[in-house]
Design brief:
Layout (H helix, E strand, L loop, with lengths): L1 H27 L4 E3 L4 E3 L10 E4 L2 E19 L9 E4 L2 H40 L5 H34 L4 H6 L4 E9 L11 E6 L6 E13 L5 E9 L10 E17 L4 E3 L2 E7 L4 E13 L2 E6 L6 E5 L1 H9 L2
Antiparallel strand pairs: 1-2, 2-13, 3-15, 4-5, 4-6, 4-10, 6-9, 7-8, 7-10, 8-9, 10-14, 11-12, 12-13, 12-15, 13-14
Helix pairs in contact: 2-3
Length: about 325
Amino acid sequence: MMKNIKYILPILLLLTSCGNKEKKKEEKNTIPVVSNSGQAIAFPNKGTLAFFKIEKVNTDHINADFTAVGNVGATIIASNTGASQNIVLFENPELASNYTQLIQHQINISQIQNINIKQKQIELERTKDLHLHGAATGQDLLNAQTELSMEQTNLANEKAALIEHETKLLSAGFNPNILRKAKVGTAYLICGIPENQIEKIKQDQSCNIVFTAFPNEKFIGKIDAVADMVDNATRMVKVRISVNNSSSKLKAGMFANVSFGINEGNFISIGKNSLITVQGKHYVFQKINDTTFERKEIQVGQQIGEKIIVFSGLNNNDEIAVEGVMQLKGLSFGY
């Protein structure tokens, strides 16, 4: 009997070892592979996708508000030192520098145009007259011409520098001339609007604003301007909105949700459980083949019942996850 046990034990150990290897191999075949900084989630076993419920999205005829995230890019306050111009407080320090330097270049241009060049022109005419009557040398005439030319060069340099700072401000959604004339107690929001929705946004249109700092209070804003350029990477257009800030409650850098009323149209909508929001950005998980999901950033509008309007990021017949979304979020973002 003891001899039999001696032979049976190694066989049992071998069978147990094989069973463990098979179990580990089975487990390994179900581990998803996350790549591209969490944007792609691939499941080695396509049967695993049965855990997730998938639905196709399609366009429907809907009335909705388009909602965009904005932030207070600048506020206008009075100068305590009695300066002729109001103070513009920017959220972005670089824009503050651009605006300050632009003001200085404008002052320099006025000085060169209205004083320096006119003075040098008068001196040149006087020197020409003196030279004509033998009271000034050719070198005096040359010096006068050189001094006028130097001032004209200075003027050209100042104008070039001014254009550089003006371009940076305009790219960020700010018109320097508007800022200089802005009233104390005005706040300016900057919103990014998807390119495919920009035709619905009109200058002087009103919009509803809810600031993160004041969730129970609604503000009314007015669209001042729509930028003249589209961001090449995001395909977004900046929109500037002015808001009454006579109470000084709004501070540069504050975030807000801005709702633009949009008339009836054809829009894609998704179930609210399909959507996840991380750091102010909205995502869904699109099924791109039998084993893989891809995280897609989308722009959303108003929630109507259980549905949320999608303005960009999805196309008709795209398949997205509607159940198991939180598990995909955990794999995609690492929590």
